[in-house]
Design goal:
Blueprint: E1 3-12, E2 25-30, H1 36-44, E3 62-69, E4 76-81, H2 91-97, H3 100-107, E5 112-120, H4 126-137, E6 142-147, H5 154-167, E7 176-178, H6 187-199
Parallel strand pairs: 2-4, 2-5, 5-6, 6-7
Antiparallel strand pairs: 1-3, 3-4
The structure holds guanosine-5'-triphosphate (GTP) and magnesium ion.
Residues 36-37, 58-59, 81 line the site of magnesium ion.
């Protein structure tokens, strides 16, 4: 499969700014600094497309990218980079019902076909569990992606994936996929998962 184009469309700070054309969308979510923007760049094979930063909380807006491929099943879709949760003072809001804008985007938008929930391979935390619980309650398909897998040794990796599966044992359908934006491990599998989300008839 070839990525024909991947372009930044806009940053949204209010729900009424989201594209309204109902193209399928997959959203990337996870706590701050987990590697969302890096993964989007790796997946779309575009180095500087999404802003990467060492400083947590860099992405505060909903950034929308339009992707076109030569695969007829996913000819055109939005990749949506959501703001990181669990950063600084947002945790109370997260517990109360999550960041309202993220909620509004995910539930109020016909196009959203699924969420890739990124968690750090080296360990999960309660914000991740809150996110999974909320997504399940909302009936939104979710796939767990364990990021920064290059930071683990081969033997650590197996243990880490098993631990994540355990931690989110309530999730029957969601699998856990190891990903590295440095080595691009997991890229083909992630594309396969996205294809499945986008083509499922919701
Ligand atoms: P926010 O926008 O703040 O929520 O962060 P983010 O989730 O978009 O994370 P970002 O992609 O900006 O990456 C955060 C830091 O982790 C950067 O220093 C990246 O270089 C590093 N990083 C991201 N992915 C990987 C990976 O797969 N492997 C390694 N070794 N480092 C990574
Ligand atoms: Mg980011």
């Amino acid at each position: 499969m070839k990525i024909l184009s991947a372009e930044f469309i806009k940053s949204c700070e209010r729900p009424d700014q989201f594209p309204q054309d109902r193209l399928p969308a997959v959203a990337f979510i996870g706590r701050s600094n987990v590697g969302k923007s890096s993964l989007i760049n790796s997946l779309l094979r575009r180095k500087g497309l999404a802003r990467v930063s060492r400083t947590p909380g860099k992405t505060q807006l909903i950034n929308v990218f339009l992707v076109t491929t030569d695969d007829p099943r996913i000819r055109k879709f939005y990749a949506v980079d959501l703001p990181g949760y669990g950063y600084a003072k947002v945790s109370k809001t997260v517990r109360a019902g999550w960041q309202p804008m993220i909620e509004q985007y995910l539930t109020g938008h016909d196009g959203v076909r699924g969420v890739l929930l990124l968690v750090d391979s080296r360990g999960t935390e309660h914000h991740d569990a809150d996110a999974v619980a909320w997504l399940i309650r909302s009936g939104i398909p979710v796939l767990l992606v364990a990021t920064k897998s290059d930071k683990l040794t081969r033997s650590e990796r197996a243990g880490s994936l098993a631990a994540l599966r355990d931690a989110f044992g309530i999730l029957e359908e969601a699998d856990v996929l190891a990903y590295s934006s440095v080595t691009h491990e997991g890229r083909d599998e992630l594309w396969q998962a996205i294809r499945k989300m986008v083509t499922s008839d919701e």
